[in-house]
Write a structure and sequence with these properties.
Layout lengths: L1 E6 L17 H14 L11 E3 L5 E8 L10 H9 L3 E4 L20 H15 L3 E9 L1 H12 L4 E5 L13 H10 L4 E3 L16 E3 H20 L6 E7 L7 H12 L5 E8 L16 H13 L4
Parallel strand pairs: 3-4, 3-5, 5-6, 6-9, 9-10
Antiparallel strand pairs: 1-10, 2-4, 7-8
Helix pairs in contact: 1-3, 3-4, 4-6, 5-6, 6-7
């Protein structure tokens, strides 16, 4: 597997974003632990938020945002690898995910406002975990990460296969398509029609809600539109696409990169992963056991800013 990138410009990394008073490490750690405690007994044991932190702030801290219907368990190996490199890592559970009832209908009510409110809370909670705060998201988490890049000042954002639309739907009709999905009755569709509720991994849901997909799509397109009008709040951004992507619209991701690059003092790198199998889920080791060892080394270098 080969990772290639295209770089916006030779602009160096920006200076520290202006954030006001940074939380102390102990305050940030306490806030993150309170978020974990809030999950209570409604969340699957394997689906809970993940916090890997030592006894002090580290030079780099990472927030990992998971995909639709899955949970922070998706990132266990990846988070551990970052932690072993000396970073504090927080992988929070996104709204309406990880519930004990894997057949819950709650996901159909997920809104873009819930996602952006959670994003603000997560960023503020994690600020004191490190001297630099890095946001990393995959799929739906990549959409939320892109929203953070546009609207909140953090040190770096990496959006991996962000869901900004379906690959077979042209970008220009994405918004009306999502709107039509929301006007139609919600449907729950199986990720695997044959395995149905037996589909692994068990820490996630075996089906997805079309209304949740449509609202996430709308949020992604809001980011694309905003990027064309104004500079992002974060000035160091990486976008990652799988050249053999089967689900998300890589053309829209490329358009977002191009829009962000038009703004001064914004460093945008678009990484194109080549040589991978045809797949969208390149992060879940329990679903594709052979894929994670193939892709993780490249993603760790990208996330760490070494590529």
């Amino acid at each position: 597997m080969k990772a290639e990138r295209s770089v916006a410009s030779d602009t160096p990394r920006g200076t520290e974003p202006q954030r006001g008073d940074r939380d102390t490490f102990s305050g940030a750690l306490g806030t993150c632990r309170n978020m974990l405690a809030r999950e209570g007994g409604l969340v699957h044991d394997e689906g809970r938020s993940l916090l890997l932190a030592g006894d002090r702030a580290t030079p780099e801290a990472y927030v990992l945002l998971h995909g639709l219907t899955t949970t922070p368990a998706q990132f266990v190996q990846f988070a551990q690898a970052l932690h072993e490199r000396g970073a504090n890592v927080f992988a929070p559970l996104l709204p309406r995910h990880g519930l004990l009832d894997r057949m819950t209908a709650s996901l159909a009510e997920l809104t873009d406002l819930e996602l952006t409110a959670a994003a603000r809370e997560i960023v503020e909670a994690a600020r004191g975990l490190g001297m630099r705060l890095n946001i990393v998201g995959f799929s739906l988490g990549g959409t939320v990460a892109a929203w953070i890049a546009q609207n909140l000042a953090v040190d770096r954002v990496v959006a991996i296969a962000p869901f900004l639309g379906l690959g077979w739907v042209p970008t220009r009709v994405g918004r009306p398509f999502a709107r039509a999905m929301l006007r139609s009755p919600n449907l729950f569709l199986w990720w695997h029609p044959l395995e149905r509720e037996r589909h692994a991994p068990l820490h996630g849901y075996p089906r997805y809600a079309t209304h949740a997909v449509a609202r996430a799509w709308r949020l992604g397109l809001d980011v694309v539109d905003a990027a064309g009008r104004e500079a992002p709040a974060t000035h160091d951004i990486a976008l990652v696409v799988n050249e053999s992507e089967t689900t998300v619209n890589n053309r829209t991701v490329t358009r977002l990169a191009r829009s962000w690059r038009q703004h001064r003092d914004t460093r945008v790198i678009l990484h194109r992963l080549r040589g991978l199998p045809r797949s969208h889920d390149i992060m879940e080791p329990r679903r594709h056991r052979a894929l994670a060892p193939q892709v993780y080394p490249a993603l760790l270098e990208i996330v760490s800013g070494n590529r």
